[in-house]
Amino acid sequence: MLKDEIAACCKALKLSRNLVENCDKIEAQSHEEYLLKLLRLELEHRDASRKDRLLKNAGFYTIKTFADYIFDEIKLPQGLTPQDLKDCKFLEEKKNLILYGDVGTGKTHLTTAIGVEACKKGFNVKFFRTAALVNRLVEARKGGELSGLLKQLSKPDLLFATNGAMFLWTAKGRSYCLIFDGQSYRMRQSLMRQLS
């Protein structure tokens, strides 16, 4: 069957089965236009697959987005807006972010939302809880593998470590400090449940 032969060729050329699935869907006026449309669909498929892989490999505990995030109780430094965070402008500027505030004020939600956006833009992101990162570093040191782990940790475009303060490292250089001075979101939700 013709499609089986196309699939075999795709496998030999290390192309995805996506080409086989799209070959019937394309309408074109010429062979060149058909080929161009098919190749564009393959590039789109590869780009989407890469971003999905980046998101999966980032290590987020849960996926959070900017969809329901409120910036009302965060003090942003001069020159940094909520839209800049959504656009990952600090990555382009090679600046770090330091998020400081009490537990439950939205730091993890914000860092995860930033990380998700960074993955969607094609950046390599790695997320750690501070204790887990320290444990990995200690184990690597004991096993004589610290230099290898440090090299591995230098590869991501964005590295998260979370605790009372949260750090997003992009490069050696200046940092933006975001202050979370609002009431704990968890505390507010608990009080609202008690009152209702």
TrEMBL record:
Q: Name one Pfam family in it.
A: IstB_IS21
Q: Which residues form the IstB-like ATP-binding domain?
A: 28-160
What SUPFAM superfamilies would the database entry show?
A: P-loop containing nucleoside triphosphate hydrolases
Question: CDD domains this protein is in?
Answer: AAA
Molecular function in Gene Ontology? ATP binding
Q: Per its UniProt entry, which superkingdom is the organism in? A: Bacteria
Task: Write down the Gene3D superfamilies for this protein, in alphabetical order.
Answer: P-loop containing nucleotide triphosphate hydrolases (3.40.50.300)
Q: Name one GO biological process term.
A: DNA replication
The identity of this protein, by name, is: IstB-like ATP binding protein
